[in-house]
Design goal:
alpha+beta, 2 domains, five-stranded antiparallel sheet, 42% helix
Length: 346
């Protein structure tokens, strides 16, 4: 366990954690347990007679010579030269640090993987996090940042083993749950009519709710989608809705997949539907939006969240949709009215 004083010294705490993890993984637990590790000093790129290791850590218990390799192979007799150059250090420990723990050329070096090092650091931090005395100490934050940088830079995850075990254990149930979410999303258009109808009545102005299918025209192909919209009477021309606020969702049809909460291009969305290209462009420019499918001037993904206990998923989602359409109407309907009037006056 680290001395309490080290928790207020970021550099000492990082050195102690790093040394402790390296020594434990290098098969030297007795050195890893030494409470004086925090007094070690780090030396970078120390030049020996024929070599220059990446790091040398010196301390009361041992000296650790570290050669780090991420993408590059070991140089010609590189570890042998380092082993010879620094053999006279006090209690030298040679560590060959790579992403996978591949073996070094010289047997004096002990291979350690960066993934294992990150996992050991994570365990040390997790053990110390249970200590209530100084949860926000600078050393703790410094060590957390060090671990995060290690994971990000090398592209490793300390939770991979636990996550893999979770998936293997629960994959059947998770896949069934995913399919259940897809089935329920297919009900969303029909089940959105009533909540949006109640919203139309609340907003007033003889607003109407319409539901219809259309073809969203992408850059390479068209996609079947369904819209459920709140519209003013003048936005419905000869039984066809040309403008409205509401839901857009992929429709399962002729081999096209239906809505999917786990695929961004298949997730439901809400926005401002508009079939007229000139008016649609004006809406997109006014709201700083990217148009979609020659149908929507402004849109955002419908964020899906788990329903509270006692509420169905579809009921929860349609209520959220109605809230979002209400907010969008209150924020943007006046602007759309002006753009509509200007477009039809020209």
């Amino acid at each position: 366990m680290l001395d309490d004083t080290l928790l207020d010294d970021p550099a000492a705490l990082q050195r102690a954690d790093h040394d402790r993890a390296l020594l434990a993984l290098a098969g030297l637990p007795e050195l890893a347990a030494d409470p004086l590790l925090g007094r070690s000093a780090v030396h970078r790129q120390v030049r020996g007679a024929t070599s220059r290791p990446d790091l040398i850590v010196t301390g009361p218990a041992a000296s650790v010579v570290i050669e780090l390799k991420i993408d590059a192979p070991e140089g010609d007799a590189q570890t042998s030269h380092q082993g010879d150059d620094f053999a006279d250090l006090p209690n030298p420990v040679f560590v060959y640090l790579t992403p996978t723990g591949r073996p070094p050329g010289d047997p004096r070096f002990r291979p350690v993987s960066l993934r294992d090092l990150a996992g050991e650091l994570a365990r040390l931090l997790a053990g110390r996090s249970s200590r209530p005395s100084q949860p926000d100490a600078p050393g703790r934050r410094h060590a957390d940042d060090y671990l995060s940088d290690l994971e990000t830079t090398v592209g490793i995850g300390t939770d991979d083993d636990e996550d893999a075990a979770f998936w293997i254990t629960h994959s059947t149930a998770l896949l069934a749950a995913q399919e259940a979410a897809r089935r329920l999303l297919r009900q969303l258009p029909a089940r959105s009519v009533a909540p949006l109808g109640a919203l139309a009545a609340e907003l007033g102005g003889d607003l109407a709710v319409t539901t219809f299918g259309y073809e969203a025209v992408g850059s390479k192909r068209s996609y079947p989608e369904t819209a459920v919209l709140v519209s003013r009477p003048e936005w419905i021309r000869d039984g066809t809705t040309v403008l409205g606020f509401g839901l857009g969702i992929r429709r399962e049809d002729n081999g096209h997949p239906g809505p999917d909460p786990d695929a961004g291009n298949l997730a439901p969305f809400h926005g401002v539907y508009c079939t007229d290209p000139t008016l649609r462009k004006a809406i997109a420019l006014r709201f700083v939006s990217k148009q979609w499918g020659q149908s929507w001037g402004w849109w955002q993904r419908l964020e899906l969240t788990a329903q509270p206990a006692g509420t169905g998923f579809v009921e929860h989602t349609t209520a959220r949709l109605a809230d979002l359409v209400r907010e969008t109407w209150q924020e943007r309907a006046a602007t759309v009215d002006l753009l509509w009037a200007a477009h039809h006056a020209s």
